[in-house]
Write a structure and sequence with these properties.
Keywords: Membrane, Transmembrane, Transmembrane helix
Helix content: 25-40%
Distance between the termini: 60 Å
Order of helices and strands: HEEHHEEEHEH
Radius of gyration: 20 Å
Length: 177
Amino acid sequence: MKKIYLTPIFIIVITIIIYHQYRIRTPVKFYPILTQTDSLGKYEVFVVHNAPCDTQKIKEIIIKFDFNTLPLDTLKKYKTIERLFYRETKYMTKNFKEGKEYHPTFSTWDNIQDFNNHTKDVLMRTFFYLTGRKSYSTWVNWDWFEKGEFQYINWNEEYFSNLDSFYKEKKKLYNTY
């Protein structure tokens, strides 16, 4: 009788282990879904495929991505650079285009793709402020509307006076040379 109960439990445990190993080995990928630029700044939105659930790992991966994909001359070109990262879900995909219809249907009442429908999918926001008091800010699990007064719980801001030395230090720290 005990064998009957142990067999399904054993199968479930093996399935969980295999899924976990697959998830660890599958690389994290970033898909740009929106880019806006003007003379003062640059704003980009990314969907992150296979994002880890651990807040610290999310932060490390995204900061490394920032310093790997933002060249120093781009940072010097703009006064601000903001990036917003979303977790890939059934509806927030690499093909997301605000204003287009969802496929499959998101809602029969309002089926238009809108970033406001995905506030819970936000992983992180990064922000370079490069005039006056220069800084690099990160908000993990950032969401202005949902978290209200608790929006800065996972907030970090680093000030620097010399962009070149700050950039080199971060590249060295995250091994992105």
